[in-house]
Amino acid sequence: MKKxxxxxxxxxxxxxxxxxxxxxxTVSDSKPKLSLAKHFNxxxxxxxxxxxxxxxxxxxKSKKIINTQFNTITPENSLKWMFIQPEPNKFNFKxxxxxxxxxxKNDMYIVGHALVWHxxxxxxxxxxxxxxxxxxxxxNHIQTLVSRFKGKIDAWDVVNEAFEEDGTLRxxxxxxxxxxxxxxxxxxxxxxMDPEANLIYNDYNVYKPEKRAGILNMxxxxxxxxxxxxGVGVQAHWDLKSPxxxxxxxxxxxxxxxxxxxxxxxxxxxVLPSPWEMVGAExxxxxxxxxxxxxxxxxxxxxxxxxQDQLAKRYQDIFNLFVKHSxxxxxxxxxxxxxxxxxxxxxxIKGRTNYPLLFDRKYKPKTAxxxxxxxxxx
Length: 378
Ligand code: XIL
Prior knowledge:
Layout lengths: L1 H26 L8 H4 L5 E6 L1 H4 L4 H10 L2 E4 L5 H4 L9 H12 L3 E9 L5 H4 L4 H18 L6 E6 L12 H6 L3 H12 L4 E6 L5 H17 L5 E4 L2 E3 L5 H14 L2 E10 L34 H20 L4 E6 L32 H8 L4
Parallel strand pairs: 1-2, 1-9, 2-3, 3-4, 4-5, 5-6, 6-8, 7-8, 8-9
Helix pairs in contact: 8-10, 11-12, 13-14
The protein binds (3S,4R)-3-hydroxy-2-oxopiperidin-4-yl beta-D-xylopyranoside.
(3S,4R)-3-hydroxy-2-oxopiperidin-4-yl beta-D-xylopyranoside binds next to loops.
């Protein structure tokens, strides 16, 4: 009897599970069932920047997409100096701790962005004109952050945007107080605080040969003098045409030839007219004169199919290249999850309607998402 009873019970249970499963399937039909990260598994990590609403649990839909589609995360703003240490030695770890907790819970490759950056810096740091004082804050910030998340944050953007377009060093408040050695100091200190963490130099407009040369000279110097650096982060705020696939390939080959890995750290593709002929991401650019200009905001009520297809094709072409060079690429991270929350709606011109990501304003996967899932990975 017992033997008979057990299989019957199992059959009943299986039926029940199937019923629940079938019901669920109908409900979630519109949601993606496949995972992008799994699709590219073994080639490179695939991720998204997480905004503070999502980190703090106020956007469960974005969170769900992140947890099912990606295997690496970057905090869009929560670890930046102005938020995490707004006043001298007063640290606010609320969002940062939750962010790291989210990554650990979902077994993600967790990125820390960014330790040293002239932008989104705390007010008290902006006008320091005293090397000793700067050195103190600089060390305290790096030591505090890296040691707090030792063994949890897998990779740090140690220094962000230190180079000018011509490949010389930006005259930032760090440079002005500490001289050019500040970058190496930051890397050495981060390494000391967490010897296992991957250390990245991150920047935009890496497609410009002079800028790339400046960055890669520094990388080669670091390798020669034994300063640990694992990779160059290419922000990849691109558009439908620029940079060309040939140039993107050059970027990958050059960084690899310098001896480190490539990460595409902030990928998004703007479909809107650019107010200047270049692409890139100097956060301080101000184009307020274009605000409200309909010519600069052509798709306020939805993206025409033709442009949607162009976007999908562009992502497809770029990812074909990534797959081709996957041995050189560590990670690809989208700068956000869905179009409505993209920073590109407000940069470089405020109040536009942009469509740069893989999920639309209703959290639905776009054509580009589907094309990436169809992409051949071998
Ligand atoms: C952006 C964020 O997405 C915005 O929310 C914020 O207002 C400004 O910064 N380069 C970087 C990122 O390294 O940190 C920037 O993120 C985009 C450009």
